Amino acid sequence: MSTEKKKNILIVEDDQDILLALKAFLELEGYGVRTAENGFEAMELLKSGELPNLILLDMKMPVMNGWQFAIEFLAKHDHLSPIVVMTAAADAKQRAQDISAIGWVAKPFELDDLLKMVKKYER
Length: 123
Ligand SMILES: [Mg+2]
What we know:
Layout (H helix, E strand, L loop, with lengths): L7 E5 L3 H13 L3 E5 L2 H7 L8 E5 L7 H12 L5 E6 L3 H7 L4 E5 L3 H11 L2
Parallel strand pairs: 1-2, 1-3, 3-4, 4-5
């Protein structure tokens, strides 16, 4: 029996369909998953519990978008949780660089490609 601790992923995404699909998929892959619908919710959620092993971050969200979240997260937690940006293909790389994220996946993405990024960058 494996004694390895479950890795925890935080998904920050305002699109409910994407959020729920990703959550179900990553849980099937053995991850613990927490979700937030915008950056503000995510910052609130991070006030308790351990920091996630990886954050999947949408950029365009109401209330607090991905840029604002990244600024707040980095100010408070530095690079303790790697951030992978999920955003429209045309500017995905630029968006990741904007917030010094470790990686990006361009929407629409295949779940297998997302999983590769998670496995590559999780702490
Ligand atoms: Mg969005």
